[in-house]
Amino acid sequence: MLGEAYGAFEVSLETAAVRGLRINTRKGDADAIYAALTDEVGTLAKIPFAKDGYTFAAEHIGSSPLHHAGAIYVQEPAAMAPVAAVDVQPDWWVADLCASPGGKSTQIAAQLSEEGFLLSNEYTRSRVSTLCGNLERMGVRRGVVTSMDVPSLSELYEACFDLVVVDAPCSGEGMFRKNPDAVNEWSETSPAFCADRQYGILKAAAKMVKAGGRLIYSTCTFAPEENEWQVARFLAENEDFSLVAPNKAVTAVSADGIAGGLPEEDGFAPAPFVLSEEQAKLCRRFYPHVFDGEGQFVAVMERGEGGEPALCKDASSPLSKEERSAVEAFLKEALTPDAVKSLTPKLRSRNGMVFVHPDLPVPGKGVYAAGVNLGSVTKGRLVPHHQFFSAYGDCFRNRIDLAPNDRALAAYLHGDTIPADFTGWGVVSVCGAAIGATKDCVDRAGVLLDAGVDFLVMDSAHGHSQNILNRLYAVKNAFPECQIIGGNIATGEAALDLIKAGADAIKVGIGPGSICTTRVVAGIGVPQVTAICDAAEVADKYNIPVIADG
């Protein structure tokens, strides 16, 4: 296949795999995110064909607050090529049919406006939660996640998509350098086995493309059985489709596809379907010795005449009176007036959850996520879902924007709360990208108690602080029957202050041992037996139990 270039290809397999990421321009301040990234990971090298795509060399980027906030998505550089092969328009309807873990779906979503729509499907159900998590983290608004076989899905959405992406499950030969497990999983029968499955997906996917729409077929393998020969068979059996040239930026850093079959004199069987030289030049192959990335195959096909569009019946319901009352109260308190006006007409109910409808019919089966989950109504109160804060964080009245290196942000990601100078719900963000929610502690306590918790815990690494004492007093004053555990402390004086603030039990333990994180990081701590004795001496006078924690 490579001829004289095989030597360079073989050498490239011995070099380290390249890492890539994309900045999420639909969430946060792109310039601020870029600046923060350079501080965190060093030099970023632009990927020539990928909008907001860069290569980098740092490790552990997944633990970055920017990653948690959905400000970036880590993706192998060549894997960005299929979506970059076409100019996705803001108002397109797009279907990504083999979507998990979500790299291509989130790449598409970043280019869609409030008029666009994204359907992300993943047949393997064990992989759907990862897909949903990444779409939620990246703040995707107008989308539906399904887990269905593509033939069944194509019956629900016929001839209605401007772009359909089939990043087909394959033998993975292009991942050998990056993923050693791909080598162990490969066998001589893998390409033929994968090719049969791929063609069934591709054939069904074609039904979903509207007249004039595009169909992208891609794999991360080098086997022509799964690539050019697959495309050749599809074109022979679907005369309303034809190959079109990918974007020039993708063509410039890739190699032509393979025309014809493999040499029969070398023992290869004749290929039943092959591409002409002209057709092969429209297909693109990514090799690690040609482009600084892993193996990838990309073909873009356009549909001429198409069938009549047909959509399934929407399975969502109008809000009940209780749901509408609770939701309207939440939105009025939390969002700006313009956001309330825009979102209220789009609210629907499905399986006990209130969601922002994506304006495309939501099927009654196989759906794992639809639009943006606003939350559920319990005892007349809306319990909001994290996805709503991630997707609509820029619509909240109250926002706390923190720098990526802010200690308060690190503490927040480990479960601590961030003090707020406002009442009600607000959003915590980094570089403008919403990472989660914050709320006045009294309101939060009310939500938890309505949900049926038996007691509350106010737990901080340093529980003898004015912030903890104030919050403990406020919650106890609002809910005097609620049992509250306060901590963590290490002295009798701290025990007395917590008890006076309203604690029904106290937790003791600040750097109690040599390997405790508090002692390792902060260099402080009190031996646990001493701390327990001091706290218990005070607590015993008030009949308050002491919990040894640490």
Walk me through what this model shows:
The structure is a single chain. Helices cover 33% and strands 22% of the residues. The mean pLDDT is 92. It is globular. It contains 21 helices and 27 strands. The chain starts with 5 loop residues before the first helix and ends with a strand. With 550 residues, the protein is α/β, with parallel strands linked by helices.
Approximate strand percentage: 15-25%
| Average of pLDDT | 92
Form type: globular
Biggest beta sheet attributes:
10 strands, mixed
Task: Determine the N-to-C terminus distance.
Answer: 62 Å
Radius of gyration: 28 Å
Q: Structural class, please?
A: alpha/beta
Per DSSP, the total helix count is 21
Helix content: 25-40%
Total strands: 27
Give the uncertain stretches in residue-range form: none
Descriptive key words:
single chain, 550 residues, 33% helix
Write a brief caption for the model.
The protein has 550 residues and is α/β, with parallel strands linked by helices. Helix 19 crosses helix 21 (528-539). The N and C termini lie far apart (62 Å).
